[in-house]
Amino acid sequence: MTTPSTKPSSTTQRKVPCPHCGTLTVYSTDNPWRPFCSERCKSLDFGAWASESYRVQARPDAADIEAMEQELERSAQAPKQRH
Question: Which domain holds residue 32?
Fold first, then answer.
């Protein structure tokens, strides 16, 4: 009599697309970079977050619009610099 394996076989392990490149990768504790496929994809994704490349679009509220108008007024009043 054989005993069942404690780990699921590779055919039954859950696979998810890598958030960075889309490659299907095993989502388990055996994958140290999960949900990414590799250390490279994990590092690239982290770099994008650190450089604020990922942004959530939002509609400006009244305070945002007022701040933008004030900034435009200040830049219009500032003397032009020659390059």
Answer: 12-54
